[in-house]
Write a structure and sequence with these properties.
Mean pLDDT is 87; it is low at 15-20. It is built from five helices and no strands. It has helices spanning 2-17, 26-41, 65-69, 73-82, 102-113. It is an all-alpha fold. α2 (26-41) crosses α5 (102-113) and α4 (73-82) crosses α5.
């Protein structure tokens, strides 16, 4: 009986390892970025949006590959979800936890990564 339970447990672990990862919905993320993020971060992700000029701290330049390479996806997720202050960045970056579902935030992180072209 213990062997059967162990075998079932191993099979379950193997099955979970092969569950496909959700692909980002880049079209939806691009649309969300254009609606909500472009105002500060600019259309090309360079931190040059018109509203960004009024902030105390210039918005993040997503095309700066050296800087973006130092930021994990988890950190970017937290910045979008909980705001810049949650990771000791600018408090001008507002939290979007009530504006986006977690899947949408993951999609935005993937989209923001496309601005860095090495």
């Amino acid at each position: 009986m213990n062997r059967l339970i162990s075998t079932i447990g191993v099979c379950a672990i193997i099955a979970c390892a092969f569950v496909p990862v959700r692909a980002a919905d880049m079209d939806a993320a691009k649309q969300s970025y254009g609606t909500f993020c472009v105002k500060c971060h600019g259309p090309g992700g360079e931190g040059d949006g018109p509203a960004g000029a009024t902030l105390a701290v210039k918005p993040r330049n997503f095309t700066d590959c050296a800087l973006m390479g130092k930021m994990s996806d988890d950190m970017l997720f937290k910045v979008i979800k909980s705001g810049g202050a949650s990771v000791n960045l600018s408090k001008d970056m507002q939290a979007w936890s009530t504006g986006f579902a977690d899947d949408e935030i993951h999609d935005l992180v993937a989209y923001v990564r496309t601005f860095c072209k090495k």
